Amino acid sequence: MASVARGGKTYTYTYAGEGQGELIAQTTPDGAYTYSYGRTNSLGQPIIESTTRNGARAYLHNDNTGKPVMLTTGSGGQALYIYDGLGSPVAVIADGNNTAFTETYDPYGVADITYNSGGNAIRDNPFQFTGGLKGLPPVRLTPDL
């Protein structure tokens, strides 16, 4: 397990798998998350099949390459992922043709939520910039002048 404190908030991480490369649990200011892995993708990397946040389980439906295409939230809502050219989820379209959330990323990968319907999708979605897992917010680096 590892932990980090940033801005007065503590983040903890628990890893497993060969080389400790699979994040299986994390605690953030947004809640406690666990991840369940299933099959592997075309590169042999494990694919997240479900995530649990504060006791509510959400399911990820992946294509043949392991890329998530649909999210079933902990409350049973279903949503489709919309990605940008870097593989970052920039929107989720919920059942009923409603937008669950949209977000943009700056060049450093810091997310800016531009719309949130208030549903569970934004909290149940485990992915962020370039398809990496949410967790510790990226640090915006500024060069020394």
What does this structure look like?
- The structure is a single chain.
- The chain has 145 residues and is mainly β.
- The protein has a domain at 34-131.
- It has one helix at residues 121-124; strands at 2-6, 9-16, 22-28, 31-40, 46-53, 56-62, 68-72, 78-83, 89-94, 98-105, 111-116.
- It has an eleven-stranded antiparallel sheet.
- The longest helix has 4 residues, at 121-124.
- The radius of gyration is 15 Å and the shape is globular.
- 17% of the residues are buried.
Q: How are the elements arranged and paired?
A:
Elements (H helix, E strand, L loop, with lengths): L1 E5 L2 E8 L5 E7 L2 E10 L5 E8 L2 E7 L5 E5 L5 E6 L5 E6 L3 E8 L5 E6 L4 H4 L21
Shape: globular
Report Rg: 15 Å
* Main sheet record: 11 strands, antiparallel
Low-confidence stretches: 138-145
In short:
The protein has 145 residues and is an all-beta fold. It has one helix spanning 121-124, and strands at residues 2-6, 9-16, 22-28, 31-40, 46-53, 56-62, 68-72, 78-83, 89-94, 98-105, 111-116. 3% of the residues lie in helices and 52% in strands.
Give the key terms.
145 residues, mainly beta, 1 helix, 52% strand, globular, disordered C terminus
